[in-house]
């Protein structure tokens, strides 16, 4: 605009000067020039200052024209040349400024391109924007390296409420001694590393999950998850739960190969509020890597299993999963010769799952799921199997579950149920077979409610139970041995406070009971109080 105005002003000066030198009609009157200046001023072509200056000069020119015509003509020629020179100078300055601006813009564009190229340079490593509690991601060329994890610790006091020992029972009520422990909760600590990239149209990932505990471990049937050993010079257990790769994309789905969480029972534990706390302790006098939480008190532990599995793309909130898994042995968890065992498996375990997520315009959100597992076991061993009789040397284990969680405003509600034949209780295929080779049926459930008192404070309450039923011809009570577990149940209440984006602090109470086959006298119970913290980074 300034350049346009300068050019117009110069034009006006030139026009006036030219008229004075005879380029315009020499008979033009002074009022004609005044009218011209008024028009230019009204159109905004002249500023007030420019208008006044030109009008003054014109009046002066008219006054001296008759007496000093020749010298005046020379002066106006000089004025014309000066105006032209001023115009040329303004245009030159404007062109120079435009050239510099264009050069600056090009330099900025080149700098941006250089930065983008540097970000993809495999020789340069940089971090992506950090989200508190969601891990740290480093970008090395086309590879993203994510490091995340969590650490927890609790003071837990357990007080037995009495009873008799139950074989396969989870309560410590018959121990007769209070116990204190500084320990992990249902989760040990976890350190997770994930490398992801895109190659040949596929999203690829390599994943490692290391889960150490804070308590000294004792080697046993469950390795790092066996009971603890609180003696001097002890060391904590290290559990490599996750070692797997994935390949796929949003069009074809995702394949997983390696060790990861199983499908059956997986959603039950992932949505259990005690995942971040202690729940039922199992053993508090000699704590191992983890507590029980609600494992065995409403669901069977999904476990971390070697697998080759496939997950479909998500379509309108619906996703399916299917896979083959490492087959497991039938295990006599109760001891005392109560259960049949097997160590031979000619075919893999098969698991599948369907999940559905939805949200309504009214603010209701839902997460629904159902899963199954099937596995054939062979060469069953038990005191009730006659060596020459092969009729019950094999069995097919079957199990199914269903669950759902609804969230609305400050409230969450969850319900879960499972049923199995040969599945057993607490762990996959724990006490699933009688000693005569017949399958025991089992079922369990839990319900859970959450109320968000404030955005940082939430109250959680839950109840659950797992039941193990006898098989045909089953011997549920052996003389001199504790009765076999029939039911494990617990009530849990907890208060969680989100102290920082990383850290939660909490207080929790759990009441646990175990019941045995054999009569109402076969039971034990205990009470547990826990306070501590859970930090995720």
Describe this structure in words.
There is one protein chain. The protein is of the alpha+beta class and 537 residues long. The protein contains 5 helices and 19 strands. The chain has a 16-stranded antiparallel β-barrel. It is elongated. The chain starts with a helix and ends with a strand. The model is unreliable at 1-30 (pLDDT under 50).
Evaluate the radius of gyration.
Answer: 42 Å
Shape: elongated
Mean pLDDT: 86
Kindly estimate the percentage of residues that lie in beta strands according to DSSP: 35-45%
Short description:
The chain contains 5 helices and 19 strands. It is α+β, with helices and mostly antiparallel strands and 537 residues long. Helix 1 packs parallel to helix 3 and helix 2 packs antiparallel against helix 3 (48-65).
Distinctive features:
single chain, 5 helices, 19 strands, elongated, disordered N terminus
Topology:
Blueprint: H1 2-20, H2 30-42, H3 48-65, H4 69-119, E1 125-127, E2 136-140, E3 143-163, E4 179-183, E5 190-199, E6 202-216, E7 236-249, E8 253-261, H5 266-270, E9 304-311, E10 318-325, E11 349-359, E12 365-377, E13 395-408, E14 411-421, E15 441-452, E16 457-468, E17 485-498, E18 503-516, E19 523-536
Antiparallel strand pairs: 1-2, 2-3, 3-4, 3-5, 3-19, 5-6, 6-7, 7-8, 8-9, 9-10, 10-11, 11-12, 12-13, 13-14, 14-15, 15-16, 16-17, 17-18, 18-19
Helix pairs in contact: 1-3, 1-4, 2-3
């Amino acid at each position: 605009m300034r350049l346009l105005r300068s050019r117009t002003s110069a034009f006006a000066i030139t026009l006036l000067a030219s008229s004075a030198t005879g380029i315009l009609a020499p008979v033009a009157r002074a009022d004609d020039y005044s009218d011209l200046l008024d028009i230019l001023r009204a159109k905004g072509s002249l500023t007030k200052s420019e208008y006044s200056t030109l009008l003054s000069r014109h009046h002066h020119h008219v006054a001296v024209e008759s007496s000093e015509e020749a010298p005046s003509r020379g002066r106006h020629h000089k004025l014309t040349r000066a105006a032209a020179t001023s115009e040329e100078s303004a245009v030159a300055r404007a062109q120079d400024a435009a050239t510099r601006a264009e050069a600056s813009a090009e330099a900025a564009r080149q700098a941006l391109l250089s930065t983008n190229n540097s970000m993809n340079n495999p020789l340069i490593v940089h971090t992506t924007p950090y989200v508190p509690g969601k891990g740290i991601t480093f970008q090395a060329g086309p590879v993203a390296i994510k490091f995340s994890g969590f650490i927890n610790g609790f003071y837990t006091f357990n007080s037995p409420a009495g009873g008799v020992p139950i074989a396969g029972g989870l309560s410590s009520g018959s121990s007769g001694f209070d116990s204190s422990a500084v320990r992990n909760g249902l989760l040990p600590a976890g350190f997770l590393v994930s490398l992801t990239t895109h190659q040949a149209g596929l999203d690829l990932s390599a994943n490692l999950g290391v889960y150490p505990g804070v308590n000294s471990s004792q080697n046993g049937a469950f390795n790092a998850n066996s009971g603890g050993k609180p003696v001097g010079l002890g060391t904590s257990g290290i559990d490599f739960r996750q070692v797997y790769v994935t390949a796929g994309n949003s069009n074809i789905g995702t394949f997983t190969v390696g060790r990861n969480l199983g499908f059956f029972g997986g959603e039950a534990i992932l949505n259990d509020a005690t995942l971040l706390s202690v729940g039922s302790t199992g053993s508090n006098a000699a704590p191992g890597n983890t507590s029980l939480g609600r494992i065995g008190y409403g669901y069977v532990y999904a476990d971390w299993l070697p697998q080759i599995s496939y997950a479909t793309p998500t379509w309108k909130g619906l996703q399916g999963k299917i896979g083959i898994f490492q087959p497991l042995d039938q295990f006599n968890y109760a001891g005392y010769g109560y259960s049949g065992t097997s160590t031979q498996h000619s075919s893999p375990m098969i698991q599948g799952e369907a999940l559905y997520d939805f949200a309504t315009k009214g603010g209701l959100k839902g997460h629904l799921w159902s899963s199954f597992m099937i596995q054939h076991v062979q060469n069953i061993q038990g005191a009730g199997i006659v060596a020459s009789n092969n009729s019950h040397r094999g069995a097919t284990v079957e199990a199914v579950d269903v669950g759902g969680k609804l969230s609305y405003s400050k409230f969450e509600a969850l319900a879960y149920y499972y049923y199995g034949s040969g599945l057993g209780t607490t762990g996959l295929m724990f006490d699933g077979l009688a000693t005569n080779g017949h399958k025991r049926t089992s079922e369990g459930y839990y319900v859970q409610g959450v109320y968000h008192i404030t955005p940082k404070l939430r109250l959680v309450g839950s109840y659950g139970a797992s039941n193990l039923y006898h098989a045909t011809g089953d011997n549920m009570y052996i003389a001199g041995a504790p009765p076999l577990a029939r039911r494990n149940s617990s009530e849990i209440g907890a208060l969680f406070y989100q102290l920082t984006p990383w850290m939660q602090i909490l207080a929790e109470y759990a009441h646990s009971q175990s019941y045995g086959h054999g009569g109402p006298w076969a039971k034990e119970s205990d009470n547990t109080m826990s306070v501590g913290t859970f930090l995720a980074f």
